[in-house]
Please model this.
Amino acid sequence: MENYLIAMAVSAGIYALMALGVNVMWGFAGMVNLGLIGFFAVGAYATALLTKAGFAIPIGIAAAAISAAIVGVVVSLVTVRLRGDYLAIVTLGFAETIRIVASNAIWLTNGTDGISGIPGPYRGALSPEAFNLLYLGVVAVMVAIVYACMERLRASPFGRVLRAIRDDEQVAAVAGKHVTLFKVKAFAIGSAALGVAGALYAHYTSYIAPEIFVPLFTLYIKLALLVGGLGNNRGAIVGAFAVVMLLEASRFAIPLVPGITPVQGAAMREFLVAVLLIVVLRYRPAGLVPERLVRLPVPPHQPTA
Model:
């Protein structure tokens, strides 16, 4: 039971990293990205290929962040003029393209058989229990580092410009801000966090395959942001842990329902996720930890002589 709880905490930490990355693009800049699992996959494959070739794990994780950021820049340059549903559809297509390429590029990704034997830190030298605890510490440190960086970004002039673009892109442009450049930077930063999450996932499970990177993963992270609080980094972490707790709790609760098949149980779990989203949007539309907007005092009107 202890190992199971630790594994769930690791999964929640990886979800939190993804939520923090998406929060930069969606929560700060207002760009709806439904292709986040594609950047997650890029990071996972980048570190898997490098570490399998003999490179150290930290180098693989750094390469995952850089690779995902570069792909994010390319995608953002293609989609920067798209808004709302159009951007969401194109990014969703990008994620599916990555999955299909990974399925067919046998020479690089081993196709649908996937890549196994991805090294983890001290995996062979530690017992499974000790390895899980060590990896939980690694994930916790990474979440803390990324959270601190995102909080610094949120409070910086760069973060304020992103929120201005989110609220009214034309006003930000009139104020002299290079909207396209800021969007590209936001996409790159968010994609880097997603790449790191993908790398941590690969080193933890030691196996990746194209069927892992499905669009449903994206919906879970979107749900985490909506539940936690869009635009709030603390809300992203809270929402990620809440979603993992819901998914795992339903895994034990569904079998208690009489007369239900395993297939129906899996469908009911997804139904519970949808119900949670509806309830949150109905009673807490700003999330459990809503974004705090700083309202500047308006100077009193000075009558002219």
